[in-house]
Amino acid sequence: xxxxxxxxxxxxxxxxxxxxxxxxxxxxxxxxxxxxxxxxxxxxxxxxxxxxxxxxxxxxxxxxxxxxxxxxxxxxxxxxxxxxxxxxxxxxxxxxxxxxxxxxxxxxxxxxxxxxxxxxxxxxxxxxxxxxxxxxxxxxxxx
Length: 143
Description:
This protein is of the alpha+beta class. The chain has one domain (15-135). 29% of the residues lie in helices and 23% in strands.
């Protein structure tokens, strides 16, 4: 007699992830900034991802003389480092954990990150997009 078995349900257990907001601080002495991206790291799911958007109008409102193209290049370098793209230099060849910690290290330059925050997810898909929409994009802005 064959026993009928029910299909197994895949249960995803909650795991923690860390994230930081990527900021442009056009004039460091004024401490004004514009959020331009998020960096998400989840060790258990082996995810290191960044999503970025440079809002030129907002940056130029803080400093009309800002070289926005240079800002774009540096912000895109963060994405390439997260992806492990070797064109981003030696840092991109480090492990995901090492790259994340290098990216979030405090610095007093024009490109900075927020403090690291922690969240819980069952699946890492969509986390970076949700945080990006919540923390970077303004209503009605497409990128």
